[in-house]
Design goal:
There is one protein chain. By secondary structure, the chain is of the alpha+beta class. The protein has helices spanning 11-22, 50-60, 63-67, 87-98, and strands at residues 32-33, 39-40, 70-79, 82-85, 104-114, 117-129, 135-148, 154-160. The protein contains four helices and eight strands; from the N terminus they run αββααββαββββ. It holds the Pfam family DUF4440. Keywords: Signal. Residues 56-155 form the DUF4440 domain.
Length: 165
């Protein structure tokens, strides 16, 4: 499969491709993926569990599960220089992204923890056939800020798939 650039021909396509980077975070060692598009996995209790959790949920097409790891006022970078805030906007971005139906793999390069806050830096790759049936490969490095909530679950405060740009 060749690595090809994806031109930004419309705001919808731009959001799909840019959002794809968000989910480049390791395919789920934390749960089982079911044919119905749902996952059964524990919510992340350590910062290093957030990456595989979100990846499993997105790969399974389980939007509800994915949204469980975002704080209410989370910030998501849809493309360099552009952010959305809050569950409604992030849910819309994730929904668009899920239309790509590409598997995601990622490796946490570094997890820095200070109390209830952590910075998670991950290399990611998404590879498969795009909506047009042609091979598509996207990759990058994300930098995400997650915070432990009162219920003990670590959730995104800032989700930046373009963390090094």
């Amino acid at each position: 499969m060749t690595n090809r650039s994806v031109p930004f021909t419309s705001s919808r396509r731009e959001m799909l491709v840019a959002s794809a980077a968000l989910f480049a975070t390791g395919i789920g060692s934390l749960g089982q993926v079911h044919a119905q598009g749902t996952t059964e996995m524990p919510l992340p209790r350590r910062p290093e569990d957030v990456t595989p959790y979100i990846s499993s949920a997105i790969t399974a097409g389980d939007l509800d599960a994915a949204m469980k790891v975002y704080v209410a006022d989370a910030v998501f970078v849809t493309k360099p220089g552009t952010t959305v805030r809050g569950h409604e906007a992030i849910r819309a971005s994730l929904s668009e992204f899920m239309q790509l139906k590409l598997p995601i793999k990622a490796t946490d390069k570094q997890v820095l923890v200070s109390g209830d806050v952590a910075l998670v830096i991950s290399d990611w790759v998404m590879e498969g056939n795009g909506p047009d049936g042609k091979p598509l490969k996207l990759s990058g490095t994300s930098s995400d800020v997650v915070r432990r909530q009162a219920d003990g679950v670590w959730r995104f405060v800032i989700d930046n798939p373009f963390g090094t740009i």
